[in-house]
Design brief:
alpha/beta; 7-stranded mixed sheet; single chain; binds zinc ion
Amino acid sequence: MKITFLGTGVSVPFEKRAQSSILVESEARILVDVGPGALLRLEELGVEPTQIDAVCLTHNHLDHNGDLLNLLKARWLMDGDELEIYAPKGTKNFLESMLNAYPYLRGKLRFRTNEESVFKIGDMKVSTIPTIHSIESRAYIFENALAISGDTRAFPELMSVDCEIMVHELSLPFGFKADFHTTPENLKDCLNYCRAKKIYLTHLYPMTLAQKDKILEFLDFEAIVAEDLMSFEL
Ligand SMILES: [Zn+2]
Ligand SMILES: [Zn+2]
């Protein structure tokens, strides 16, 4: 399995980072979130929009799904197959309302929405855990190897899932009062439960990125702040 960060940024442009998106490649090519900028990053990697087999959305905030319609539109124009979209409950209605907003796309975009919490993509087992965010959101666990948090406050149930690598958000800086995002203090409290051998941090707001060195020292764990186009194998 090869994992490539397409977008490690947030809604505020900073350090030329695209918004949330991760490419997971095994037998299938999967996008976990399709934030604004993901399509350009795919082009930089030489991956065509039609070569994506499935999308797993963590939640329907704009910084995580802003390029989804663009991906579907590109696939329509490039004669692509139907795209399988795995996503939290409510996504089917969300996409229906987007087609109401862009009626010229109705009947053109080919996709199927699947809101199950456990499923398979090809032979790959995928499970989900509801996360603690301001709307219906979930983390993805691929083959007990890779966990991707999406947006959430850090919490023990997710941190203790069986995986080798954890990709976790770290939106907010030291001392920030946050109910639906992770701060360094909140993450450190949960790292005792972490079964992954390494954690990649993503979705850092500019004020959090500014504290990067201090945060890594404070966490005292095998942790890396992810950057766009960084990749690793599992
Ligand atoms: Zn969010
Ligand atoms: Zn977000």
